[in-house]
Design brief:
The complex is a heterodimer of chains A (179) and B (125). With 179 residues, chain A is mainly alpha-helical. Chain A is built from 9 helices and no strands. In chain A, helix 2 packs antiparallel against helix 3. Chain B is mainly alpha-helical and 125 residues long. Classes of the chains: A mainly alpha (179), B mainly alpha (125). Chains A and B meet through helix 2, helix 3, helix 6, helix 7 and helix 9 of A and helix 1 and helix 2 of B.
Amino acid sequence: MTPSDATLVTRALEGDRDAFGELVLRHQSAVRRFLRHLARGDEALADDLAQDTFVQAWHRLGQFRGDAAFATWLLGIAHNHWRNARRKQREVALEAAHLDSLETVPPAATASDLRQDLAQAMQRLDPDEQTALHLTYQQGLSHSDIATVLGWPLGTVKTHLARSKEKLRTLLAAWNPST
Amino acid sequence: MEPVDLKPSPPEDDPLETWLRANATATPLPDDGFTRRVLTSLPPPAKAGMSRRAAFCLAGALAGVLLPWLTGTRLPDVAANAVELRRLALPALQQLADPNLILALVVTGACLLYVFTPRGLRPHR
């Protein structure tokens, strides 16, 4: 029987590194995908931040109270790491050049036309709106979990999601004659 | 801030909802050695043995035992000092019988207990 996250956390707190390794294996995809989204596809930066996220999770494991799912707790740490990294990038005035270089990354070449248009429309949303959509549809989180991860009030999450969908409906109107 | 329509999410047959769900990547990212890198970057496990706090406590206890012995303090001296201490402390303790002071001490104690109790041991709200 597969042990639950809570069981693995308890074992990891007792110093069982294999249990923590199982947790990393289980959640690395979600954390790395979230950070790749935030880093706009910069896989190296995202993976470095993901590694820092798990190391910090190891140190702070005793603070995990189980109020939210372990994955939600991890994504919250990942988001904090991303914010700190972005702040440092701003301090050394590298972010603009970094983002400019990433803006030119084309969407997946194999995507269908609709998928391509959807990806392009998503890129025209505010970063916060993109993040709210990513956590909803890519990570499958509830509104309250998203509020926990991002440290936003629940109303702000709903507002961002409602706004982003309205913008997408407008941007993709050609694909949807019924709107 | 302009008002935003906070109506519930559109039903499942909303094309946008369908597209967004279809666009979600279901395939998990391959680990590619990521877990191994994380585990090797963890700090080494703490060495078994006495913690720093326990070492300090032991050193303090030893110092407390050895210091009187080294300075030649005799047991009768300690007993005499204890009697003197009790004579001086009793009037001070009698002043603590004030109910307001007791209440203040209880509140302070409860606050300290809450602050220094590890989070995991606190009752969940």
